[in-house]
Amino acid sequence: MDRDAYYMGLALEEARASAAMGEVPIGCVIVDEDEIIGRGHNQSESMDSALAHAEIMAIDEASKKKGRRIGSTLYVTVEPCPMCMGAILNARVDRLVIGAENPRFGAAGSVVNLAAFRAFNHSVDVRRGVLEEECGEMMRTFFKSLRP
Amino acid sequence: MDRDAYYMGLALEEARASAAMGEVPIGCVIVDEDEIIGRGHNQSESMDSALAHAEIMAIDEASKKKGRRIGSTLYVTVEPCPMCMGAILNARVDRLVIGAENPRFGAAGSVVNLAAFRAFNHSVDVRRGVLEEECGEMMRTFFKSLRP
Predict the structure, then answer these.
(1) B55 an active-site residue?
(2) Beta-carbon separation of B90 and A68 below 8 A
(3) What is the pTM of this model?
């Protein structure tokens, strides 16, 4: 199996943990030479914090091992928002692998493309659409469940 | 004295705490109806984390009091980077007051203007140039001190 699909599958497991808590189901894993150095799932509601996105949780964990420049590949089930995309640039993530698109808040091309601003001292390679159907379906199921 | 200048002075005190630690001197305070609900100073080096910017530290503290939508006015001595500007939008900060410009990484207009993307569900009122000279001078002094 495609290595990226394998790790995106683990990010989907993280997203399932969010769904189980009634949170928007987004998950993230960070991989450095086949070692997982960070995991995170969205916990904005339960932590009651706008900072508690999957990518921030995962980068926080990875920074404890690798310091503030983590490099590595970050897998996330949904295209990052501006905050998370900014954190990805600040942490000097080498490569970003995205599952589903985020047409409302996506900052890796959907609404704005921060990855393309070379002014920000670092650029990140982006691959999109890995397990896109599964990642998107998890979001659709969640939002459908909110409707009366 | 101008109320904004008063609170920017407190943000400058936070920036001084960063400078004393050998960190890039950026400070932040968050004010909700004349009550300070968050303070932060850049600690990227000492915490060895790309997330440890002044605004993130202050929003984290404010969220513990007000939850994930903090509203309020956020004072920061230097224009926010994309990560912090994204966090400001996610946390639904009502008003952003900036000291010095950040021509390299500024995401409130200097390199990109995330505040202007109405697509991001929330817009924030921005005032610039409050104690600009003092805020900028602190940065210049710091970077000068790094040169041999």
Answers:
(1) yes
(2) no
(3) 0.96
- Among residues B7, B3, B45, the alpha carbon closest in space to that of B28 is found at B7
Contact at CB, A117 and B112, closer than 8 angstroms: yes
- Of B144, B140, B146, B124, give the one whose Cα is nearest residue B55: B124
The C-alpha of A31 sits at a distance from chain B's nearest C-alpha, in angstroms, of: 17
Task: Tell me the pLDDT tens digit for each residue of A16-32.
Answer: 999 999 999 999 999 99
Measured between alpha carbons, how far is A44 from B67 in angstroms, rounded to an integer? 10
- Are the C-beta atoms of residues A54 and A79 closer than 8 Å to each other? no
- Selecting from A68, A70, A112 the residue whose C-beta is nearest the C-beta of B44 gives A68
Report residue B110: phi and psi, to 5°: -70, -45
The per-residue pLDDT for A1 is: 60
Distance from CA of B131 to the nearest CA of A (A): 25
Domains defined for chain B, CATH in brackets: 3-146 (3.40.140.10)
pLDDT tens per residue across span B20-74:
999 999 999 999 999 999 999 999 999 999 999 999 999 999 999 999 999 999 9
